[in-house]
């Protein structure tokens, strides 16, 4: 009986550590037409090496991106044109940040950190869908973890080896 219980506990521990081993978003849901605080949780480095660069690709329909600086890391905002113009509180917005890069830091393989953005989820996004933010961790010697897989129709993130972090979009909140 004790052996079976220990085996079950060990299996659960291994299963949960594998599930938590990827880059994820702390806040799993957000309404469209609102500001969202995207907190990317980076639980480790790459293959025993420290993470030196974290790149976050901003999906279409996400605008007004403001990254939170991190002590010891250099922050770069890569800007470009959107596929269309979006309404941002009455102001047409057709270009902005498309990628955020934190570089020059040193997140050890046995360490954890968070990288934060504040964004606006436009009303053009569809409630009920999951919006994915592809993330790449770069480490020394060209080693990288590419969390860029987006589930196809009928798939879940659990079906993927390197899933992109996602947030489930909710209906817009009425009022202010």
Summarize the biggest pleated sheet. 5 strands, antiparallel
Helix content: 10-25%
What is the chain-wise order of helices and strands? HEEEEEEEEEEEE
Tell me the quaternary state.
Answer: single chain
Count of alpha/pi helices:
1
User: Order of strands across the widest beta sheet?
Assistant: 6-7-4-10-11
Cα end-to-end separation: 57 Å
Globally, the shape reads globular
Q: Kindly name the structural category.
A: mainly beta
Number of strands: 12
Low-confidence stretches: 1-20
Structure description:
The chain is mainly beta and about 180 residues long. It has one helix at about 1-20; strands at about 25, 30, 35-40, 50-55, 60-65, 75-90, 90-105, 115-120, 130, 135-140, 145, 165-170. β10 (about 135-140) and β11 form a beta hairpin. It is globular, with a radius of gyration of 18 Å.
Quick summary:
The protein is mainly β and 176 residues long. 10% of the residues lie in helices and 48% in strands. It has a 5-stranded antiparallel β-sheet with strand order 6-7-4-10-11, with no helix packed on it.
